[in-house]
Target: Avidin
Amino acid sequence: MVQATPFLLVLILALGAHGLPAKKCTLTGRWINDLGSTMTISTLNANGDFSGSYLTAVTATANKIQESPLQGSLQHPNQKGQPTFGFTVNWKFSDSITVFTGQCFVDNDGKEVLKTMWLLRSRVEDIKNDWKATR
Model:
């Protein structure tokens, strides 16, 4: 019976964890990525639409980097948990635009983390150069 007690305690704790409230990830605020780029999401309306700004730390152009506006949408803004989202950055300092899609997570330590993928489209002179316009 002594060996069964720790197992039962762990099982009861595991079953009881389902009753805990889900951790909620909040998209608004200031975010910094691994490369030092900064994104600020300042407004989020009831429909899940948001706006803000993005200051990249990296660029492929020789132009001076400038803070650029972003517009996006959060999937199911009133749901609890870890929502998906997408946004577009219209770069002020180059002839390109980037779209991001991702999800907001709360890790086991309670830290909010954004996991995203991006696609950048640069302007090219003609359709023959289309192959090199998207990264």
Q: What stands out?
A: Strands lie at 29-32, 38-44, 49-55, 68-74, 84-90, 96-106, 112-122.
